[in-house]
User: Fold these one by one.
Assistant:
Number 1:
Amino acid sequence: MLSSCYITFSGGLYEKDLRNYEAYITAIIETRMPTAEKLVGIIKETIHGLTDNYYCELYGSYKTGLCLPWSDLDFVIINKQGQPQEQLFLTRVYNALRNKPWVTDIKLIENTFVPLIKIKTSEEFLEFSIDISIQADKHQGLKCVQLVKMYLEEYKVLLPLVLALKTLLFHAGLNNPDRGGLSSYGLM
């Protein structure tokens, strides 16, 4: 049943519309990418400047290629020694970032399933949202990236389809898992 559905969809009118939407979104993301890359460098440099024991990795939609103009930059901080993560280090990162001139809003959210820092950048930095969390057993962000990339490689039509569905969820206010919505990984 699924294969006949795929055959009907593939190459049809809807696929053309989805591919056009993908091209439209890709053009917008390309204009935002230099700023995103600059922010990635700043965050990584800040973490490295605090200690050599930790580093951070980008994960989420910017890492998988499923980002939209309103997508945030997701970072996970990893302890190089593989030791249990210290909540105190997240506080140190928060303190290092809170007075940066490009930060317009910053919150340290400690009492949650995965503690994190939420940042909103200035207009100069395109008002990006940034989430920074610490690697722990319950944090599966990096593993999700691997799986999503595998799916995107296997099913070529998945990228434009997921971009369109993510847009619909965003406009319906159902794209934020913290508020009962669906994450990109959940959508996959």
Number 2:
Amino acid sequence: TGSTDMRLFLGVDGGQTSTPALIGEETGRVLGAGVGGPCNHVGAAGGREKFTRAIKESVGEACRRASLDPASVRFEAACLGFSGGPEDKRELLRELLRTERLIVTTDALIALSGATAGEPGIITIAGTGSIAYGRDASGRTARAGGWGYVFGDEGGAFDIVRQALRAALRFEEGWGPATTLHSALLAATGASSANDLLHRFYTTEFPRPRIASYARLVDAEAAKGDAAAADILRNAAKELAAITMAVHTRLFRPGERVRAAYIGGVFRSAILLDAYRGLLEMEVAPPAYGPAAGALIEAYRAAGLSAPLSNLPEFKT
């Protein structure tokens, strides 16, 4: 068949660091992949231009790799998932893409769909922040957490570092137990005291992702035997298990075995992951596929197809 006769499907993961895109044909075989720049907030200054460029780059590269003309390609269905709410992106995408069906959704849904290969289940995401999201066999969805760093995101990397700084401050002020987190945080940041670091963390020199990056340091101190660091990680695991269970309770029968996938840098901590697994009576597993593949699965789903994916590339995340 020539490419013009094929029914084509598009999946895009519009992320805050990059925008991967996958083009597949109806059997589930991936024909081409591309990656564009970040495209998170359309409303921000220069946001529309950034967004448009990221989509054109990623879809254009995927088209070229699939030997398709980006200027004339038409999709049977396209699914694009974004952080920061999909609402303001729909009309822009209508101008950028020619597709019979356009699905604009959240990054949580495409992460879930990729993680469970489109099957019912739950995904718990713990990066800088945290959220759990699930979908049952009938298509009902539920979420828990994801309230942002001021009011929630317990168990996420920013929260882990917040707890670590609090432990260091308590020790410094004489109302908390000794902890190696104090010296480790000062060594990593060049701050003269925990109080100095507290003030630095409030400045633009330390944006949230930079603060969150010190969660690795908490894991390292816990692995060396620091009790305060280990407690912080075990509490984070408890919070993450709580949001996972909340989604399970709302969507599935008590005791029903469902796949609970996890994603995000926080789960790289063996101490935290072991504690998290131990708290859940579910099949806990890493994701089957990434979010871009999840978006492609959702594009197939919109057209009433369920195709096993093949020829998937590796995306560096």
Number 3:
Amino acid sequence: APLQDLPAGGKPRVLLLYYTDRDGEVAFNVPPAAWLQTLMVDMAGGTPAWSDIELGSGWTKVSFEQIAAWDADRIFIIRYTGSAAEVVDQLAADPQWQELRAVQADGLTAFPRDYYSWDQPNPRWILGLQWLAAELHPQAFPQFKLADSARQFFRFAYRLDDSAFDRFITPSMETSSIQ
């Protein structure tokens, strides 16, 4: 609701990249237009930077040159196996990536996760959407605290009390600055 009257000019260009290093080869991929990840960027008040390319029916591999050409305001890194935060740290230290506007503006961020990334089509996507909206538009969500929202979600969806949440979920959470 806080974003429903957001003007088109108030939407940052967002690049959501799935990072993989399968078989030792690093690749960055963007999702198809109809996939949840793209819809989440739109619902969170962002403009998907990759909407101008021909996309396949699955994740589409993109080059660094294409990433640089999009010149996104914010870049979010998804990683399904391993730590996305570690990838963000590596990229932020890379001189080539340091030339990107999003990196210079401290806009390179790991997408949150616990046992699963919060961008996938399972109930956790709701947490990912809340977090993404608060990341893109913190002024619209001044009271948002990811840890509180996650605790409420796991209490409602999985009937985990605070003790179980602290024991099982908190240690597995990888989040960004919005705590």
